[in-house]
Amino acid sequence: MESVNYSAYIGLDVHKDTIAVAIASPERQGEIRFYGNISSAKEAVIRLMKKLIKLHGSILVCYEAGPTGYGLYRLLLSMNIECTVVAPSRIPKISTNKIKNDHRDAVALARLLRAGELVDVWVPDITHEAMRDLVRARSCAKKDTKVAKQRIQSILLRTGKKYEKKMWTVRHRVWLANQSFPLASQQIAYEHYRQSLEQIENRIEQLDQEIDRLLPNWSLYNLVNQLQALKGVGRTIAISVVAELGDFSRFSNPKQIMAFLGLIPGEHSSGSVTRKAGITKAGNVELRRLLYEAAWAYRNNAKVGSWLIANRPNSVCQEAKDISWKAQQRLCFRYRSLVAKGKKSQIAITAVARELLGFMWDIAVTTRNQRV
Q1: What SS3 class is residue 328?
Q2: Which of 84, 89, 244, 319 has the fewest other C-beta atoms within 10 Å?
Q3: What's the pLDDT tens digit per position in 203-234?
C-alpha cells in the first residue's frame, strides 16, 4: 500500500444487516474509538462516509473479505474514498484473546490498518466476478454429475446388472435406457436417477454456453487463449485458473503464486532441528486439483502432437508457444527423473504441477500487453 497521509483510519466489521465502525487517529499511539453500529443499507453507508469526510478529510477504509462480496468496496470507490478489502486469514490475532465481538473486530481492523499490518486481496471487476461465479457453478455441477453416476451404478450393482465395456459412451447410455426391473417402484427409482443425471448435464451445457457468451467481454480473455499453448491446459482449465487467480501480475514472482495455491513444501523448524513437511495445501483446493490434472500430461516424452496444435486457439502468440515447448522439455524430464529416484507418481505430479504454475505465470507476464 502506498504511503499516504490520512487523517483517519476506518475499520468496518461488515455483516448482512449491520456494520460496526471504528476510527483510529493517524498518530502511532493515537486514539482508537468505537463509533457505533449502522445499517448496511447503501443510504446509511453514504451518510456515514460523508460525515466522516467532513470531520476528518482524507480517510482510508478497510473491511474483511467475506460473503457480502465487493459491493461496499465499489460503493466507496464511486464516492472517491480509498478502500481496501483485507484477507481474513492474514489478520494478526493474539492467541490469549478469547473475547470476540463486532466492537472488538472493528477496533482491531482500524488499529491494524493504521499500523500497515493488513494484507489486501485482489478485487475483481464485475465481469470477472460473473465469470468466476459461472466457473464455480460449473464445478459444482460436475461434482453433482459424479454423484449422480455413482447412484446409477449402485442400483445396477445391487440388482446384478453389469456392463462389461467402456462406460458412459453412447452405447452404454443406450444400454442404461433399456434396463428394466421386476418391480415398478424400483424402475421409478432408477428412472429418477437417470433423469437427475440428464438434468445436471443440461445445466453444464447451459453454463458452458453462458461462459462462451461472456468470454469475449472479459478483460483476461487473451490470457485464457495464451495459457492454452501449454500441454495439458485446455479451455476449461485455462478459464478456471484465470477466473480464480485473476491478474497474474499482482504476483511479483512465480514463488508467490505457488505459495498462494499451497504448492510449496511446509516447514516446522526450531534451532538446529529442521523438519520438512508436505505441501502447505493453502488456497483453492479445486484449482490445485485442476493443476494436477494438467500435470499428468507430462508423463510422456516432450512432443508437440497434432492434438495440441489442433486445439490451440489461433490467437496464441509465438512467445507463448516457445514457453510451452520449454515447459514440456523441463517438466517431462522432471517427472521421469523423480520417478527414477523412487518417488511416488503423486509426489512427482505435485512437483510438475508446481512448476507448471510457474510457466503459466511466465506466459501471463510475457503476453500481458497483447490484445486478442
Answers
A1: helix
A2: 89
A3: 999 999 999 999 999 999 999 999 999 999 99
